Prior knowledge:
Layout: E1 3-10, E2 13-16, E3 18-20, E4 25-27, E5 45-53, E6 58-61, E7 73-74, E8 83-88, E9 94-95, E10 102-107, E11 119-122, E12 134-137, E13 141-146, E14 155-162, E15 174-180, E16 186-191, E17 196-198, E18 202-210, E19 218-223, E20 229-231, E21 238-244, E22 248-257, E23 263-272, E24 278-285, E25 296-302
Parallel strand pairs: 9-15, 17-23
Antiparallel strand pairs: 1-2, 1-5, 3-4, 5-6, 5-7, 8-10, 10-13, 11-14, 12-13, 14-15, 16-18, 18-21, 19-20, 19-22, 22-23, 24-25
Amino acid sequence: MAVKTVQAVVNGQTYTLTLNSSTGKYEATITAPIRSSYNLSGHYYPVTVKATDDAGNVTTKDATDSTLGTSLQLKVKEKTAPKIEITSPTAGSYITNSKPTITFTVKDDDSGVNTATIGITIDSGSKITGDAITKKATTSGYECTYTPTSALSDGSHTVKIDVSDNDGNAATQASVTFKVDTVPPTLSIMTPSNGLVTNQAACTVKGTTNDATSSPVKVTIKHNVGAAESVEVGTDGSFSKALTLVTGTNTITVVATDSAGKTTTVVRTVKLDTTAPTIKSVTLNPNPVDAGRTFVISVEVTD
């Protein structure tokens, strides 16, 4: 008897093999399934081979066969790497918390994300993996969060995220650079002095401001109940604004705001008094007075 047909069944599809006269083997070129075998039982696609002779006798072997089973286990690996998206902090942002929560997502909709490979590196520190990172499963990956155990210093920091899928494909590393700023800006007012009493309505507010981490600093000045007005700040941090005082008590509020939104406020109170005092009466006692003797002068003044 002779072999009539040899067939293979892969992922539900039947393929007929052709005899290769050079090798004496039955062969076929088959396109592998488009999905990874990682999530299948045993991490493989089971292959079944069926040989039929001219008399109709059939021999079948599959992945459970004690002798040939291993060679009938087709392992398919995906070639698409996972994707990483860092959602917080955002690039170039200013953070006022020295222990900012880092949030990101990792996705792979085929072999799946290998959670053991999820890693965070802050600046030049060691990579952080494992249970230190909180992972919430989603339909195609994980939503992850991590909060540093030690406070980050004020200034620039870079976070890098790495991950691979279960077939060993490494994602392109994602990174984000941001700044931590926990210190409000400095604000010094040279003029006017607090509590100043003057008869000049013209008043110039002068001062300097700075922030080591998140310059430039914005400055606003509010006079009494008026609206706060922006003031131009020089490259050296100096600023000035001319005001016209009203008679009586004037409240001047200066606010410096850095790029992180932290503020410093200085309030100056200035009194404008343009009314000269009134001399209501004068008494000399005694009057007349003996030569060389003392007398008392008494003046009544209001202001």
